[in-house]
Amino acid sequence: MAWAVLMTSVVTGVFCALFALVVDAVTEALPMSAAIALAFLSGFLGSLFAQIILGRRG
Fold first, then answer.
1. Residue 17: its pLDDT value, please?
2. 3-class DSSP assignment, residue 10
3. Is the pTM of this model over 0.70?
4. How many CB atoms lie within 10 A of CB 46?
5. What is d(CA 30, CA 52) in angstroms, rounded to the nearest whole number?
6. Residue 31 is inside which H or E element, if any?
7. What is the DSSP string of 36-58?
8. CB atoms within 10 A of CB 8
9. pLDDT at position 57, please?
10. Number of separate domains in the chain
11. Under the phi-then-psi rule, with left for phi > 0, alpha for psi from -120 to 50, and beta for the rest, what region is 55?
12. CA distance 46 to 3
């Protein structure tokens, strides 16, 4: 079980890091509300991505 949690966290972290690089390349400066929204979107999509890649549901 610990291995599954660790793998999901690693995959999510990698996704979020790549997402941050894309956001940094596209934008120079963001208002705080946009930065918060992008952080949420990154975490949300990263979690979905990890669950899909690792074949887990729920």
1. 81
2. helix
3. no
4. 21
5. 30
6. none
7. HHHHHHHHHHHHHHHHHHHT---
8. 17
9. 57
10. 1
11. left
12. 18
